[in-house]
Amino acid sequence: MKRIINSPLKILGLLTLIFGLLGVLTFSYFFFVGIYLVGIGLLIYLIDFLTLKLLKDKRKYWITQSILATVYLILAFVTYMKWQEHNYLIFPKNFKGQAGIIFGIEGYPELPKTKFWKKTINIPKDGIIITSTKVEDIPNSIRSACSDNSRVNYQDINWEPNFEMDCIICDSKIKSWLFQVDSESSTVKEIMTSLCNEIASNKKNSFYKSENSVVWSDNNGKYLWLQNKGLTSLPEGLGKLNIYKAILTGNDLTEIPKQIFQINTLEDLILAVNPISEFPCDLSRLKRLRSVSFAETAIKEINCDLSQLDNLEHFDIARNGLIKFPDQIKTIPNLTWLSLNSNQFTDFSFIDSRLKNLETLYLYSNKVKSISPETKFLGNLKELLIFDNEIESIPDNIADLKNLEKLEIWDNPIRRISPKIAQLTKLKSIQLDDDFLTQTDKDKLKKWLPNCEINYQTRSEKKNAL
Hints:
- Helix content is 22%, strand content 20%.
- It has 466 residues and is α/β, with parallel strands linked by helices.
- It folds into three domains: 8-83, no CATH class; 86-200, no CATH class; 287-465, Leucine-rich repeat, LRR (right-handed beta-alpha superhelix), CATH 3.80.10.
């Protein structure tokens, strides 16, 4: 035992190894810290061995041991305190809503200096701090309290430490920390949008530049890519971009930002996965609009005339939990592509002559039980995706779809196929399940559709695979 602890370095090495092994045995975050400490402990033992071999003079040996042990203790203390370095945020009493620190804006005060590994930051009553300090220059962990010294329930604070906003029409961007306390709000995001407007007007300056432009290009021209940015608003000046498409999927927009209407060249607008609940009746202001998506929003009804949308051809309102079809969609004069997938429709009863121009209809993942006679209004349909429903037969009226080229009706318990499917002479591909079809049924279908690619899948096999 004496050999293990007969020098300062050996004692420190042993203690380091013990702490390291305890960390490894936790099998948690401290596992990797433990591995690191075990390595340090073994290194200390190696240094102790070298000092013993190289220093024959006992006095020099013990002086070296003492110096090295002292240096190690100082380094260990500094490392530990550096690990403990944090921002201490003091929120106003009973604060609720969105608070935030906006970093790197030239001309604003710096954050307080760090004292004894703690940077104390007082959040004002409005919850907003704008500073010239860069986020990289402060500790990356936080602790918090209220101004009356009461403790903060950390479960009530949603901290978003890496929220960034591109200013779009210039190469600047803004970085921030956001804190949502007990209620939903977008106050800080709105301030960031206003700052972007001032930066674009050369009234203010951000120390941060966008590494990647949010304006991209393809064969059709320039488009705006702002997917999953957490945005609640957009900066001014978008009309200068001359883009043909705006992708705003997965943000926190509750309406179409008014800046979108500045884009006279806009043809394609994607607003899917946003908490929009009211359909924008001023959509007709976008005169060149050809395609729009409100998929996975909160829109349940449309209470405005869409007949002025002369150029609109594609309309997507999928994944909205619709039970009733918004009748105003039928007023779109030149609609050719309609996506209604992942709603709650049970049949084709919403279809009438006003949808006669449809060429593509997505009705998959609903609760459709039958292909009802309204198919007589779909004579121009070329593509029908109606898989993942509850359809048991392909009926006689399938022949109404005389221009159909693609039919996907798999993941339906099809038991009967009408011979009149043979009248679909333009059909190029069909995909369906064969769980309830006999070989005779398959042979007949091949005979009826000699020039069509027929693909089968077995539902039971698919479910077993899952």
